[in-house]
Amino acid sequence: MTSEDRLAAHLANLKASLDEPKHKPIGYTMTNRGMILLFATEEEARAAYEDAQSKKHKCELHEDRLIMLEFGTGDKD
User: 6, 25, 36, 69: which one has the fewest Cβ atoms less than 10 Å from its Cβ?
Assistant: First the structure.
């Protein structure tokens, strides 16, 4: 494998990891105002909540593993 092949493989792996969401809920439901996300652990929920807040989403953390995320909020890309 040449250095170009290794670089191409590394870039492909990097792109795949960036395309994957950081925080994966184990369940969700849609409401008229947004989404409710359920996470497997309190740590995952807190990390997702802090990430959403850093992007200026209006959200609330409930019962340790639930996040309520309101539509139409957050940074616009």
Answer: 6
